[in-house]
From TrEMBL:
Pfam families: SSF. It comes from Streptomyces taklimakanensis. Gene3D superfamilies: Sodium/glucose cotransporter. It is found in: Cell membrane. PROSITE patterns: NA_SOLUT_SYMP_3. GO terms for cellular component: plasma membrane. This is Na+:solute symporter.
Length: 520
């Protein structure tokens, strides 16, 4: 890296610190820290939702898939997410927002204690939090590998550098800092991504490269299905991503909750869906064409690094690396914020009852300390793991495979068609899906990726539907809760909820849901 690249990268870190300090002025209560008080514009919420799905993993592991197998990576990953988010815009986005607007909750899992029962909420919270620690560890490893490739920075120091910076601005600024970082990431990614695309076109045949390169690439690189990617895997990912990116990945539910209203949350989801379908294809084109520029690479995970070093001038490489940092730090910040919300608002009041008596300032301090602890735990796991193959194992075999069983009771519990599906259906679905995953992951040798990803989520879905139909557990409270999410509250209703929760904040978000339902 040239001196100009280091200057650009240093300027990026200073901007991150400034965002954290500026956002701190907007955080006065626990609601500001976790959901920005519902004051984030719909377009910013949509951009943040979209950008929260990126990390450096895209430029390491997914770049390897693009280098080795071609355009299939687009059909396997971003297209399934874009279609899934588009479906969720009509099913889930507005209902997440109304949980905050009608019931004043700050955690996506808060409503589960009333919708099902407290044990169900706790089981889903603990299993999801454990999964997030592993997921974030993979992201630290990915950004550290990029730092090592571009700047020869040891893996350990790469993890520590990104982790400490993320820890700082998130602990200060909460969701506001996260969303503003996402927007900055969007701008950096647009500049760096277009620079890489134009550099590629200039290096090859100009604009004509867009339609002539396919015949020059290795056989199968222009096929939607190639290599380890099968049509079954694509369908399995579409099912998983529909749940994951509409709230099963808890931080993305927060984006909908932070919008001003349910109708605007729906617009946020539609914007995110459009961006997922269009923009990643622009980013992936240079990765797909990389065999024409840097042929013969044995380790595909290094292909994007070598491509950038071949095509980009000084300064732009620094901007590109800043974009990698921004991808990872924004996603980790997003995850740490929502995990902190779950811990402080759902887990801690049950595990340590005295946290229920904390003042508003005490709860805000507790949230910040929890943010630091979560990021530290994920960094520690990243530091002790073997980076070879770790990222793909986590992304596909662990996160994608277990996200369905954890998210199905959470997501379907929002919908009116399943209002009679109670805790028995939720826990059976969760346990059955994870049991199938554990069997495939640890017992079955050479289970396919399609089986690893698809069978757990299908098992969980079928069990939830069947158990709920055979053993329904309807109640007036559940009906009232689900029914309250059908429409946006009036401004007077919204203001009354905010005032009541501000004047006498409940011990937990679950208590807030119960209180507002009692008043109704």
């Amino acid at each position: 890296m040239a001196t100009l690249d280091w200057i650009v990268l240093g300027a990026y870190f200073l901007v991150m610190v400034a965002i954290g300090l500026w956002s701190r002025k907007r955080v006065h209560t626990i609601a500001d820290f976790f959901t920005a008080g519902g004051r984030i514009p719909w377009w910013l919420s949509g951009i943040s939702h979209h950008m929260s799905g990126y990390s450096a993993i895209m430029f390491v592991t997914f770049a390897a898939v693009a280098y080795d197998h071609g355009v299939t990576v687009y059909f396997w990953w971003p297209l399934t997410i874009g279609l899934g988010v588009g479906i969720g815009a009509f099913l889930f986005a507005a209902r997440w927002n109304r949980l905050r607007a009608r019931h004043g909750v700050n955690s996506p899992l808060a409503y589960l204690a009333v919708r099902y029962d407290l044990p169900t909420q706790q089981v889903l919270a603990y299993s999801g939090a454990a999964l997030k620690v592993v997921d974030i560890a993979a992201k630290w490893v990915a950004i550290a590998l990029l730092l090592q490739g571009f700047a020869d920075i040891p893996l350990v120091w790469g993890i520590i550098l990104t982790g400490v910076c993320t820890m700082f601005y998130m602990a200060f600024g909460g969701l506001w800092a996260d969303v503003l970082t996402d927007f900055g990431q969007f701008v950096i990614q647009a500049v760096a991504g277009l620079a890489m695309l134009f550099a590629l076109l200039a290096h090859l045949d100009g604009v004509a490269t867009l339609w002539t390169m396919w015949g020059d690439l290795p056989d199968g690189h222009g096929d939607p299905i190639n290599g380890p990617v099968t049509s079954g895997l694509i369908m399995a990912f579409l099912l998983v991503k529909t749940f994951e990116y509409n709230g099963g990945m808890w931080n993305l539910a927060q984006r909908y909750m932070a919008a001003p209203s349910g109708s605007r949350a729906k617009k946020s989801a539609l914007l995110s869906s459009f961006l997922w379908i269009v923009w990643p294809f622009v980013l992936f084109l240079p990765m797909i064409a990389a065999p024409l520029v840097v042929p013969g690479i044995e380790d595909g995970e290094k292909s994007y690094i070598m491509l950038a070093q071949e095509l980009l001038p000084a300064g732009i490489i620094g901007l590109l690396l800043a974009g990698f940092f921004s991808h990872t730090m924004a996603m980790v910040a997003s995850d740490s914020n929502v995990i902190t919300a779950v811990i402080t608002r759902d887990l801690a009041p049950v595990l340590v009852p005295r946290t229920r008596r904390l003042t508003q300032a005490g709860r805000l301090l507790f949230a910040r300390v929890t943010t630091v602890a979560f990021v530290t735990a994920s960094m520690a796991l990243a530091l002790v793991t073997d980076p070879d193959g770790f990222i793909m194992t986590v992304v596909v075999s662990i996160v994608a495979a277990t996200m369905g069983p954890i998210s199905i009771p959470l997501m379907l519990g929002l919908l009116p068609w399943f209002r009679r599906h109670g805790p028995r259906a939720a826990l059976t679905s969760w346990a059955g899906g994870l049991a199938v995953w554990a069997y495939l992951y640890w017992i079955v040798e050479d289970a396919s990726q399609t089986a690893n990803v698809g069978l757990p989520v299908l098992t969980s879905l079928v069990l939830y539907l069947v158990v709920g139909l055979v053993r329904p557990e309807g109640s007036a409270t559940r009906d009232l809760l689900v029914g309250s999410l059908d429409s946006d509250p009036s401004e007077a209703e919204r203001a009354a909820v905010e005032k009541r929760l501000r004047d006498a904040p409940p011990a937990s978000d679950g208590a807030a849901v119960a209180e507002t339902l009692t008043i109704r």
